[in-house]
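User: Working on a comparison across species. This one is FMN-binding protein from Streptomyces labedae. Can you predict its structure so I can line it up against the others?
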Amino acid sequence: MRKSHPVRRAVLATAATVSGIVLLLSLKPGSDPGSAEAAGGAPPAAESVQGGARPIGDGTVTGDPAQTQYGAVQVRLTVSGGKITKAEAVQAPKGGQSDQITSNAVPRLNQAAVQTQSADVDAVSGATYTSAGYKESLQSALDKARASAPADTGGGDAAQAQTVTGEAAQTQYGPVQVRITVSDGKITKAEAVQAPKGGQSDQITSNAVPKLNQAAVQAGTADIDAVSGATYTSAGYKESLQSALDKAGG
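Assistant: Here's the predicted structure for FMN-binding protein from Streptomyces labedae:
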């Protein structure tokens, strides 16, 4: 029995060596996926704007306001050549500590939107709610920009439709901002993306804005009559409407 011990030890040593080699060979590929994943993780974010079924249309477009715990966030984009050339927040939380957070976070988010060309931007540390609202409104703006892009490349009249948002006009009771859709040189749709709200302003806005929208489409210009009882809202509407028409080329 004692004489067989060296043979057993030799057999066990050989088996251990073979097992070690097999394990080493099986572990080698495991280091590659990490590198491949790191190298392949970035492209999807860069392609998100152009990677959809339709590109984004040129012009200025404003996303829907995103409500957060500390106030609304609304993003406006300027698009040229199918790319975001400028991003800005037309609304952001304000008052108290929000002023400092907004002044720190918004410029970074604006820069990130232009760099990534998508709504896949990193949240700014210390501004979680503002960042989330920004991304939501940014995605809304991108969706609208895609919707306004030409549906075909045939050069027909339908390809000339564009959606443009005028500059926000400040009034005594709050800002008014108008967005229009123009096709074949005519206003086909007008809507207020911002209007005075709160208290009596809610009733005035709900009564005046639909009438102003209809008047803008009918007139095809900013030369529309003010709605009775909504003098300030009407004036702000006309100012923002003229701004939108100027951006659309008159």
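For your comparison, note: Residues 161 and 183 are 4 Å apart (CA to CA).

User: Helpful, thanks.
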